[in-house]
Structure formats: structure tokens, C-alpha cells
Specification:
alpha+beta; 8 strands; Nuclear Transport Factor 2, Chain: A; eight-stranded mixed sheet; disordered N terminus
């Protein structure tokens, strides 16, 4: 699988099967989702740490980010939000993913109707400039937008939360 970042948009060449081809089994979807998730996580956190101004290009136009309980929706709001964050250093310690299979409730139909969708879950450690180090957990709902030659992955939903232990 050849992956590259074109204009800071996450793209894969023929990563998921075309609807014209025979449908792969679920294990194939899982394997493809894992490869997509690994590449996405590498691109996302490198972009967050080093090129944050272009990070909104990884999101759908109407994407929603929930950052420690605060909702941010749409590209303009995402751009403004990311500009307010201090510089960061992310270290991802755990990555899990799965394809979102079939119609799972109303959410998938609203967020990513009839599109290949992958749930990506990460956790690790982040240090924002001027602040102490925090454990974090982040969940992404990625959706594939296919063309005849490649697949463009975009974030439909993103939920970030610090996971620091409460002190007594």
C-alpha cells in the first residue's frame, strides 16, 4: 500500500475495495482499517505538533471536535480553536481501530452516510508548552471519500479528553 500526504490531506491509493469489485470479507476490512489508522495517527499527531495551521484540512467541512467537553464544529471554528492551543508534543502509546460495519444507529447515517468509516482510538501523553504533562485519550471517526484513483480520508468526528488521575 502506498500512502502519501497530498496538500496535507490523508490519501491512500486503492486502500478499500471499489464498489465495482467483489466485497472483501470482514477480516479484510479490519486489516485495511488498521493500516489506515496507523498511517492516519502518524500524520495527525505530526501535523498537530509541527504544522498545526493545516490540521483543519484533515477534517470534513462540518466535522465536530469535542475537546475536554467543549464542542467545536466546522472548519472555521476548528481553525480558530487550534490556533489558540499552545505548541504540543504528543506521544501515542496505544492505538486501536475497527471498521464501522453497516448501519450502526442514526449517528453513522448522519456523520458518514454510505461511506467507508473507521473508528480510531488513541491514548498517550501530551505536553502543551507552559503546562504539565497529561495523559490523553482521543477517538476519531474517519470517513473515506473515494475517487477512481485514490481514497481521501477525512475526520468526521473527534473526541479528545485528558485522562489524568484525580488526586485526593
Amino acid at each position: 500500500m502506498v500512502w502519501h500526504l497530498l496538500s496535507i490531506i490523508f490519501i491512500s491509493k486503492n486502500h478499500f475495495s471499489s464498489p465495482k469489485k467483489m466485497k472483501p470479507d470482514f477480516k479484510t476490512y479490519v486489516d485495511q482499517a488498521c493500516r489506515a489508522a496507523e498511517e492516519f495517527v502518524s500524520i495527525y499527531y505530526e501535523t498537530m505538533d509541527k504544522r498545526r495551521r493545516v490540521l483543519p484540512r484533515l477534517y470534513l467541512d462540518k466535522a465536530t471536535l469535542i475537546w475536554n467537553g467543549n464542542v467545536v464544529t466546522g472548519l472555521d471554528a476548528l481553525t480558530n480553536f487550534f490556533e489558540t492551543l499552545p505548541s504540543s508534543e504528543f506521544q501515542v502509546n496505544m492505538l486501536d481501530c475497527q471498521p464501522v460495519h453497516g448501519k450502526i444507529g442514526i449517528f453513522q447515517e448522519q456523520a458518514t452516510p454510505s461511506q467507508t468509516t473507521v473508528l480510531v482510538v488513541t491514548s498517550g501523553i501530551v505536553k502543551f508548552d507552559g503546562n504539565k504533562q497529561h495523559y490523553f485519550n482521543q477517538n476519531f471517526l474517519l470517513t473515506a471519500q473515494s475517487t477512481p484513483h485514490n481514497t481521501v480520508w477525512k475526520i468526521a468526528s473527534d473526541c479528545f479528553r485528558f485522562q489524568d488521575w484525580a488526586t485526593s
